[in-house]
């Protein structure tokens, strides 16, 4: 005759073995929904209100972070307006992986006459189509004096 302990062990052991032989439960992961976004971090050079001399050439630099989950490739900052200050129509960006920040520099030539120079820029694709449409443009805002 077996004691109560032997009967208990005999009854529990098969269940323990059965529990460890089950296959692990897996949950398929859904790919993240593409989310394209940016965050303006700072004016690296020539913050708003800076003063430049008439005819002066200077490099305006912004720092922008890719805060979405979509890599930036073949993207540009495209000038949205004309002003007496001169700058290229568009400047290349990237490539920039999600979470990474990038410094974007535009060469600008101040007007020959005193006044305010404000140039707006939006992110576009290689064909000039706007990206991040809900975002306000970044801009250069200097005084020529």
Could you characterize what this model shows?
The chain has 145 residues and is mainly beta. The chain has a single domain, classed as Immunoglobulins (Immunoglobulin-like, Sandwich), CATH 2.60.40. It has one helix at 4-20, and strands spanning 38-43, 50-52, 57-66, 75-79, 90-93, 101-109, 115-125, 138-144. The strands form 2 sheets. It has a 5-stranded mixed β-sheet, with no helix packed on it. It is elongated and about 65 Å long.
TL;DR?
This protein has one helix spanning 4-20; strands at residues 38-43, 50-52, 57-66, 75-79, 90-93, 101-109, 115-125, 138-144.
Task: Jot down its keywords.
145 residues; mainly beta; Immunoglobulin-like; three-stranded antiparallel sheet; 1 helix; 38% strand; elongated; Nbr1 FW domain-containing protein; Ig-like_fold; Nbr1_FW
In DSSP terms (H or I, runs of 4 or more residues), the helix count works out at 1
Question: At CATH's second level, what is the architecture?
Answer: Sandwich
Radius of gyration: 30 Å
Please identify the oligomeric state.
single chain
| DSSP strand tally | 8
Give the overall form: elongated
Order of helices and strands: HEEEEEEEE
CATH homology superfamily name: Immunoglobulins
Q: State the helicity in percent bands.
A: 10-25%
What is the top-level CATH class?
Mainly Beta
> How far is it from the N-terminal to the C-terminal residue, by CA?
107 Å
Output the structural class.
Answer: mainly beta
List low-confidence stretches: 5-17
Q: DSSP strand (E) fraction?
A: 35-45%
* Order of the strands making up the biggest sheet: 2-8-7-4-5
